[in-house]
Each structure stands twice: as structure tokens, then as C-alpha cells.
């Protein structure tokens, strides 16, 4: 099948040739441009050559941990969907802490894989459309959220947020003084239905944002016990 150059580019990094072949054929059939790598070293080389829209990354690579490569990739803003054989919640949450946008445990259903990829890419596209039309900068004391550049600064210092962290912070900041349940945030920010482990997924990302914007005490993003989260700050401006 001839793939149009406008089709999303996906890099698969997994040392299992059977998985690489299966996923590659399936996604190619669904009009994605696919490249595969069997280790982190090859993954880095192909990442530079391909500039993919999304990376499907196995946690257990032969030459180094997939978590390490995930952190490097996320600094570029590229989406990362991690694969793991581990079903332990803490292990999966470590992936989110390293910047993963989503995860899938092996063995997995190809239809679910496709649905997750579609959701991630759609969220990215919707985010880009928002950035093209947005004209405001939200300012909360020393915290500034620039919608046009997707940049967050704290006391004039740029804060490196992942795409998902920015979208979550921006959503809460533009809907202040309202309690958002975790399931509602999954639907509004992740743009997918709630699934097992979704509550912890939200908690981990909120925790990462709080660390980065120096809000560990919850001055801006408050935890409402038994309910969810609320962005609350008395003095905010639109510029």
C-alpha cells in the first residue's frame, strides 16, 4: 500500500522481532509510516533520521532501559507509547513519571493499540489547533502560561513540561475554582474513556507538574479529598 507523506510517522523500538513485524504490518496497513529498531542505539539513530510523530517503546531493551530513552525522546516533544510485560502498577507509573504519554501491557490487542495511537495523535492535533488560534497568556503571580508557544515560565525561568503536562495544566488553569474528578480529566485532557489505573495516571501527572512549578504544597493545584483536583489562585490575569 502506498503511504502518503502526510501520514503519521511511527518508530517502533522493541527487541522482539515478532512484535515488531506484527505491529509494523498492522500499522502500515492502516496508513502509518513505520520504522523499527531492536535496541536503544538503533532507536536513537532512526529517531534522528525519521523525526517521528510517535514512538512505540519497549521498557526492556537489551542495551539500556526504555525509561532512559523515553526521557530523551520526551524532551523533543514527541509522543511516547510504552510497552511492558510488567503489570505492577508502580512499574507502569514509573513510565508516566519518565514522561510516557500512555502505556500498553503485553500481550495486547492490536485494535486497542490502534485506538491509543489515534487518541494520542488526535490530542496532539487538537492541541496544535488550539495553539494556532490562542492569543492569551495566563499569569498567576510568578507563573506564566503562554498558549501560543505552549511555554510555561516560573519567575521568568522556562519550565520544561511535556505536551500532556502542559495540556493538563492549561486545562485546569482555564477552568479555575472548579473541582475536576479524575475521570473527567481523563476525558477532557487525555480525550479517552476512563480505564483501570486512570486515577493513578492523573495523580502521577499532577505530581510531576507540581514538582516542576514548585507547587508541592498545592497552593495552585489543590487536591480535594475524595473528589479530584482544583486550580485555585485569587489573582490571575489574561494578557
TrEMBL record:
Matching Pfam families: Response_reg, Trans_reg_C
InterPro entries: CheY-like_superfamily, OmpR/PhoB-type_DNA-bd, Sig_transdc_resp-reg_receiver, WalR-like, WH-like_DNA-bd_sf
Chain ranges of the OmpR/PhoB-type domain: 135-233
DNA-binding region in chain numbering: 135-233
Domain Response regulatory: 9-121
Gene Ontology cellular component annotations, sorted alphabetically: cytosol; protein-DNA complex
GO MF: phosphorelay response regulator activity; transcription cis-regulatory region binding
Listed PANTHER family: PHOSPHATE REGULON TRANSCRIPTIONAL REGULATORY PROTEIN PHOB, REGULATOR OF RPOS
Protein name in the entry: Two component transcriptional regulator, winged helix family
Organismal lineage: Bacteria, Bacillati, Cyanobacteriota, Cyanophyceae, Oscillatoriophycideae
Amino acid at each position: 500500500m502506498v503511504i502518503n507523506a502526510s501520514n503519521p510517522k511511527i518508530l517502533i523500538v522493541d527487541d522482539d522481532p515478532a512484535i515488531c513485524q506484527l505491529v509494523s504490518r498492522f500499522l502500515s496497513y492502516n496508513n502509518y509510516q513505520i520504522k523499527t529498531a531492536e535496541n536503544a542505539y538503533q532507536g536513537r539513530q532512526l529517531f534522528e533520521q525519521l523525526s517521528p510523530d510517535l514512538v512505540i517503546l519497549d521498557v526492556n531493551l537489551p542495551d539500556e532501559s526504555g525509561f532512559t530513552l523515553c526521557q530523551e525522546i520526551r524532551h523533543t516533544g514527541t509522543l511516547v507509547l510504552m510497552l511492558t510485560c510488567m503489570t505492577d502498577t508502580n512499574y507502569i507509573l514509573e513510565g508516566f513519571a519518565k514522561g510516557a504519554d500512555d502505556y500498553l501491557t503485553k500481550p495486547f490487542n492490536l485494535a486497542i493499540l490502534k485506538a491509543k495511537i489515534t487518541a494520542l495523535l488526535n490530542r496532539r492535533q487538537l492541541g496544535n489547533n488550539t495553539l494556532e488560534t490562542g492569543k492569551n497568556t495566563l499569569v498567576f503571580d510568578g507563573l506564566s502560561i503562554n498558549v501560543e508557544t505552549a511555554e510555561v515560565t516560573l519567575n521568568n525561568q522556562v519550565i520544561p513540561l511535556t505536551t500532556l503536562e502542559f495540556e493538563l495544566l492549561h486545562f485546569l488553569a482555564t477552568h479555575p475554582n472548579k473541582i475536576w474528578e479524575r475521570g473527567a480529566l481523563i476525558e477532557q485532557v487525555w480525550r479517552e474513556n476512563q480505564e483501570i489505573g486512570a486515577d493513578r495516571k492523573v495523580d502521577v501527572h499532577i505530581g510531576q507538574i507540581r514538582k516542576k512549578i514548585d507547587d508541592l504544597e498545592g497552593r495552585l493545584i489543590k487536591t480535594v479529598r475524595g473528589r479530584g483536583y482544583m486550580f485555585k489562585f485569587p489573582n490571575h490575569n489574561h494578557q
